[in-house]
Specification:
This protein has about 525 residues and is mostly helical. Helix content is about 75%, strand content about 0%. The chain has 19 helices and no strands. It has helices at about 5-30, 40-45, 50-60, 65-75, 80-105, 110-115, 120-155, 160-210, 215-225, 245-260, 265-270, 275-305, 310-315, 325-330, 340-380, 385-410, 415-440, 445-465, 490-520. The longest helix is centred in the middle third of the chain and has 52 residues, at about 160-210. The protein starts with 6 loop residues before the first helix and ends with a helix.
Length: about 525
């Protein structure tokens, strides 16, 4: 069972956590009350300063996958887990390259970007499909993590309690998203970035204090307590060192870099910038904030291995997602002390806010695509009132969020990492090449776009279902089922070049057909 606050301070911890939830929800709803137009619902107001925009981008970027999962991987795997934090920063650097053309597109949704090279209903439908294929799995896995963390905070980490917490938090997030849209969520994302940065920095300082600031002693203790003593700071622990593992290694890192940068709810923060200069400056500020958090994640992961130990963290489970809370309960004198309780509560609040920021952003991104790319552009053929469009967007938040809550509750207790991989793989194999082609290649057309988006989505999804991430391994979504056709995850290695080649071939073929038709 997870380490939680001691009974003497349990009331203090719960009171602080619940009070923080109320404040966060109030900030979100209050900030979005005056947002009536569809544009404000989709992307918020375009009046943020570069620093505010950077904090909002960082808040939408710092998911539980970064805060919880990578902390656990650093604790278990050492070097390979640390390398994942570098991928997080590299993905933001990629977003810096895309910031100017994305802002110049005047987009509100992915469909607006795809429409730059391909007109008609087809590209917008493709945008809606791929947006849902990314945001829905992301929403589900974040809610699963939120339910687990909240149940642990309550001191009852049983399956039924986790499901109840998942449903309650999901309802709060969905209601918040319906009422406030992107404008209200911007305030939450800024608050999330500040809270995560403060809490994780304080916790990492506490870890360093436990070792008198000696990084060598921390690394040595982490090596002793890790899952791979003697090779904690050597590569290969996570994915292996044979030929297939090397391809898997390349694919995993490419997937994290490209997928994280091309998540629809992350792209919204670029759309919402005041101008291109603000967009680029905001991304640079986000790199600084996320970089500080990533450094803290590395320290906390090593601290968990050193102070808690990999065997205690896993306690019979195949993953290390409990590392962060176990460490938080042990720092600053333990959860039985006032300082320990405050630090534990701060970490729990930071994780909750990251869930609120990411899940809310994902739900609004999905709803915006449904309302703008499908309802307005396809169903209403560009006609209709703004009030009706906003109403459809709010209903879409309820539909997408409600469905996600049900699935998340059913998956509680399962290893949901597959859903994170699915979201990142589809974003990397379908959205990334389609974005680059749409922004940079004048010869890109509707056929090429369809081949890129649908080809990348199907290829990545099928390869993931046939990989050990879906079945046949302890970390799989269905460990007792075995559909795996190969030992490694090749979704990215095969999917990205396939989707890119399909986009090029489809565009060239359609252009040749058009030229032949002109000469007849």
């Amino acid at each position: 069972m997870l380490t939680t606050a001691a009974p003497s301070n349990q009331t203090l911890v719960l009171t602080g956590f619940l009070l923080f939830i109320v404040i966060a929800l109030f900030v979100s709803v209050f900030a979005g009350l005056d947002g009536e137009t569809p544009s404000e619902f989709y992307i918020g107001a375009r009046d943020l300063t570069p620093w505010a925009g950077g904090l909002a981008l960082a808040g939408s970027y710092l998911s539980t996958s970064v805060l919880v999962t990578i902390t656990g991987l650093v604790a278990f795997e050492g070097f390979d887990g640390i390398l994942l934090t570098a991928d997080v920063l590299l993905s933001l650097s990629l977003l810096l390259l895309l910031a100017r053309p994305l802002r110049l597109s005047e987009a509100h949704t992915l469909g607006d970007v795809f429409a730059l090279r391909a007109s008609g209903a087809g590209p917008r439908v493709a945008a809606a499909v791929v947006t849902l294929a990314v945001t829905v799995p992301l929403l589900i896995v974040q809610l699963v993590a939120a339910g687990s963390v909240t149940a642990a905070l309550l001191g009852f980490p049983r399956h039924g309690v986790q499901q109840v917490c998942t449903v309650l938090i999901g309802v709060l997030v969905v209601v918040c998203g319906m009422l406030s849209g992107a404008k209200g969520l911007t305030a939450v994302q800024i608050l999330a970035a500040l809270t995560v940065t403060g809490a994780f920095t304080a916790a990492s300082v506490a870890v360093l204090h436990a070792f008198q600031g000696d990084l060598g002693a921390l690394a040595s203790a982490a090596d002793d307590g890790s899952d791979h003593p003697g090779r904690y700071l050597r590569p290969g622990g996570l994915l292996g060192t044979d030929g297939g593992a090397r391809l898997d290694f390349i694919g995993t890192h490419l997937m994290l870099i490209l997928g994280s940068a091309c998540m629809p709810h992350v792209l919204i923060r670029v759309y919402a910038s005041r101008d291109t200069t603000t967009a680029r400056r905001s991304v640079r500020h986000a790199v600084a904030v996320v970089g500080l958090v990533c450094l803290s994640v590395v320290v906390l992961g090593m601290g968990a291995a050193a102070l808690i130990g990999a065997r205690t963290i896993s306690h019979g489970k195949p993953n290390a997602d409990d590392a962060l809370l176990l460490l938080a309960g042990d720092l600053a004198g333990g959860a039985g002390t006032l300082a320990g309780s405050v630090l534990f509560t701060a970490i729990a609040c930071a994780v909750f806010l990251s869930v609120l920021a990411v899940v809310g952003g994902a739900a609004v991104a999905a709803a915006g695509s449904i309302a703008r790319d499908v309802h307005r552009a396809v169903v209403r053929d560009g006609q209709g009132t703004t009030s009706r469009e906003t109403l459809v967007a709010r209903a879409a938040v309820l539909l997408v969020g409600g469905g996600g809550i049900v699935v998340a509750a059913l998956l509680q207790g399962h290893a949901a990492g597959f859903l994170s991989l699915l979201a990142a793989a589809v974003a990397a194999t379908a959205i990334a090449p389609a974005l680059v082609y749409s922004l940079c290649w004048k010869g890109y057309n509707k056929v090429g776009l369809h081949w890129t988006v649908y080809g990348g989505t199907v290829t990545a999804s099928v390869l993931l279902v046939l990989s050990p991430a879906f079945s046949g391994s302890p970390l799989a979504l269905f460990p007792n089922l075995n559909l795996a056709c190969f030992d490694h995850n090749y979704a990215m290695v095969v999917g990205l070049p396939t989707a890119s080649a399909l986009g090029w071939a489809g565009s060239v073929n359609e252009r040749r057909r058009g030229l032949r038709a002109l000469h007849r």
